[in-house]
Write a structure and sequence with these properties.
Elements (H helix, E strand, L loop, with lengths): L3 E7 L6 E7 L8 E3 L4 E3 L2 E2 L5 E3 L6 E3 L8 E2 L7 E2 L1 H4 L9 H17 L4 H17 L10 H4 L5 H20 L1 H17 L8 H8 L3 H10 L5 H11 L7 E3 L1
Parallel strand pairs: 2-9
Antiparallel strand pairs: 1-2, 1-8, 3-4, 3-10, 4-5, 6-7
Bound molecules: zinc ion (ZN).
Length: 246
């Protein structure tokens, strides 16, 4: 079964055709949610990539609204750049160098120009997630994930090594991580319509402002698994991104 619906669009600079993919909406419920709001399905992020770097000419451009005539679901009768050639700017996530390269791409876009708040929020949110990717799923370093037969020893120990190295790289970049979150916080407070549910307390928690995070959560009208976990981790002074459902 195809998990994605393909679509096609052209680079506004060189007119090269690129293939994009949208996750089929009925599969969204089977996805994994993380506390920072990132959602993964089959290890692929479900948030559309709106900033595209053309694999043919290197021009960067926004795909703001995936609508016709700019975008079509009909495959054009010419050569098309496959999704893998341009998605995440060709970066591979199987090692920390690829994750650092993705961070650099977002930093480059943010430095290159100034954006309207909605676009800056989008880019800073993806930069936030890219930093967190360095130590996302950190719980897998525990021995229990080897002993429950989830992974072979070889896979688990390679993954563990990558996470431990990723944690070091995350801490090395902590100043930039915090600067990005502080700026995102200012933007989201100014534009509440762009806020995602529970995003503000999570930003405060990841900035190690645990009291502020708890004060916001105490005011929340309902208690869910997510809010309970966030309160617990704020009490423990644990600022790391965590898996909410999966
Ligand atoms: Zn191009």
């Amino acid at each position: 079964m195809l998990k994605f619906d393909p679509y096609y669009f052209q680079c506004p600079c060189c007119q090269a055709w690129l293939e994009g993919r949208n996750l089929k909406s009925e599969l969204v419920n089977e996805a994994i949610l993380y506390s920072d709001g990132k959602i993964l399905y089959d290890n692929l992020i479900t948030t559309p990539q709106k900033m595209v770097l053309c694999p043919s000419c290197g021009h960067s451009f926004w795909v703001e609204r995936p609508e016709e005539p700019f975008i079509t679901t009909e495959k054009p009768p010419v050569a098309v750049y496959s999704w893998n050639t341009w998605r995440f700017y060709g970066v591979s996530f199987t090692n920390n160098q690829g994750k650092l390269a993705l961070i650099k791409h977002y930093q480059y876009f943010l430095k290159k120009s100034s954006y309207e708040p909605k676009k800056e929020i989008y880019l800073r949110r993806l930069l936030w997630w890219a930093y967190n990717d360095l130590h996302r799923n950190f719980h897998y370093i525990r021995w229990k994930y080897l002993f429950n037969g989830f992974m072979s020893y070889g896979v688990w120990s390679a993954y563990r090594r990558m996470l431990l190295e990723g944690e070091k790289l995350f801490l090395k970049n902590l100043k930039d991580f915090n600067a990005n979150l502080n700026r995102l916080l200012v933007l989201l407070e100014k534009h509440p319509e762009e806020q995602v549910d529970l995003e503000l307390p999570e930003i405060h928690r990841e900035l190690r402002q645990f009291e502020t995070a708890r004060a916001i959560l105490d005011k929340a009208s309902s208690r869910t698994h997510f809010t309970i976990e966030m309160i617990k981790r704020s009490k423990w002074k644990d600022s790391r991104v965590f898996m909410v459902t999966g």
